[in-house]
Design a protein that fits this description.
Layout lengths: L5 E4 L5 E11 L3 E10 L6 E3 L4 H11 L6 E4 L5 H10 L7 H28 L3 H18 L2 H4 L6
Helix pairs in contact: 2-3, 3-4
Organism: Paenibacillus campinasensis
Protein name: YgiT-type zinc finger protein
Length: about 160
Amino acid sequence: MGDLFKGSHCTCGQKMNLELRMLIHQKKTRIYDVPVYVCEHCEHYEVLKPVKPYVVQYIAAIDGSLEHADVSLAEMNESVHVLYSVLQGADQETEAEVFARFKEAFDDRVNMLLDLFGCARKMKDDDWMREIQERLEQLSEFAVLLPENSNFYAR
């Protein structure tokens, strides 16, 4: 998974790879499946910009809690869930194959959510509509990263 996705350049000048990592907060909360760009040269890492506010918001919500927690960001964030599902077994695929599955997975998820939104609207379920809209917004914010990582996504 590491070198399939090339991200931006690190401050040391090297290319950064996209990986799913675990973040530990205050030695008691482990957040799995956090997409980060990692520099193998200097070990610097950056949480992907569209995901970072979500991680910060989650940490703020649990801050002060005495409980230990192990959570997967893929279970809490629509974009990360799609990314996680695409990257499972991606080590055996070429970069072009992974990007093709990436595009297909994002398109499928958006279409499914739009269908659900239509159902929620017919049912006049405002809460469900709001939830679906938030999930769609997560996907659209994350999709902005795709063109910078590959010529596969031309806009």
